[in-house]
Amino acid sequence: MAAVNRVFAAQLSGLPVFGPDGESIGRVRDLVAGLRLDAQPPRILGLVVELTTRRRVFVPMLRVTSIEPSAVTLATGSVNMRQFTQRPNEVLVLGQLLDAHATLAGSDTRITVVDAGMEPTRTRDWVLAKLAIRERRVGLGRRRSAMQVLRWEEVAGLGLADLAKQPQGAGQLLMLFDTMRSVDVAATVRDLPLKRRHEVADAMDDERLADVLEELPDDDQKELLSYLAEERAADILEAMNPDDAADLLAELAPAEQSRLLELMEPEESAPVKRLLAYSSDTAGGLMTPEPVVLTPDTTIAEALAHIRNAELPPALASMVFVCRPPTATPTGRFVGVVHFQRLLREPPAELVASAVDTGLAALRPNATLAEVTRYFAAYNLTCGPVVDTEDHLLGAVTVDDVLDHLLPENWRETGLHDTTGETGEHLEADRA
């Protein structure tokens, strides 16, 4: 490995990982340390690397040949491709040590861990030798103490038992999440111990937690929602996309579902209730009730302004739906659609009525998943209208929702490809 004196964990977060021939492997998501019974610094066992397929695997430190400010490079050799699972004697440096509360050894001075630095030893091992800390002072308001870098031996209270029982903040971890997509944050949260997962959820704002919750597997969604206080759970459901909120509520017991719907604001719960009336594997159950809906007298310029909204998912931005008032679903009479490529070709002052495609077939809310899939394949769409028998637009189905229901139920947990056969069993000894 290239000579490096010290590397702090936060610097490694998100770094790209390359193979010996420069091929892209994935990104660093955490470091795994093996805690000791004595006060000596814990050994860094390896990295948690998220592959391009979203699977998270363990890479032993002996496979790391260089750590640069911009990338990590691995040596030639096989790596166990099984999904990473934390072992009882292990701690996730980013996920569990950051924000941990401890004390200075031999005193009652309370501190918070801000970062952790690993250093190489003469035996080619890496140990968690340094901790960046701040003192926890009472009564200083917003004032913060200066950060210090101490040896591992100078800090007490970071054993596995300590981390399991003491309350812990999540400020430093959330700072790392700021640069990550919601799907990547969800994968990180899913790998955390249950206590830490709850602490992170408590520290997140409602909008961010809603985005992350949408990317979690069903069982993790239900567990996290049940942990939250009912009032906050209702707020999170309001912040979710209505179709995702409906999918989650459909998994709950009827009494719990009704209670949460009652706690939601009426204007937020109404579209969710409409979606719950349909089976989850039909167009009505798959659709979102909040597509871009415009009246025929809207200008092309105004239509383009609507789809430029940064919060609009790309699939919904691919098409606007033209309807008679009212424009809230269920709308007035559905006129047709305008594809965004057509909007780009038309003069800005023209009305969307002049560009409407009235020939595109619409889905009925009771259309099966197989019918919806054939519809998207036949018309090469990423978004399609759902219309009732009286020509009211009810919502729109997007291709990502179709794929979500076509993929195996555990696809978020196993990654996009099953690579469990690609293993290097001899590497397990490096983690013992």
UniProtKB/TrEMBL annotation:
InterPro entries: CBS_dom (IPR000644), CBS_dom_sf (IPR046342), Mg_transptr_MgtE_intracell_dom (IPR006668), MgtE_N_sf (IPR038076), MgtE_transporter (IPR006669), PRC-brl_dom (IPR027275), PRC_barrel-like_sf (IPR011033), SH3_actinomycetes (IPR058838)
Key words, A-Z: CBS domain
Gene Ontology molecular function terms on file: magnesium ion transmembrane transporter activity
GO cellular component, one term: membrane
Source species, domain of life: Bacteria
CBS domain: residues covered: 287-354, 356-414
Gene3D superfamilies: CBS-domain, MgtE N-terminal domain-like
SUPFAM superfamilies: CBS-domain pair, MgtE N-terminal domain-like, PRC-barrel domain
Name under which the protein is recorded: CBS domain-containing protein
Native species: Amycolatopsis mongoliensis
Lineage, uppermost ranks: Bacteria, Bacillati, Actinomycetota, Actinomycetes, Pseudonocardiales
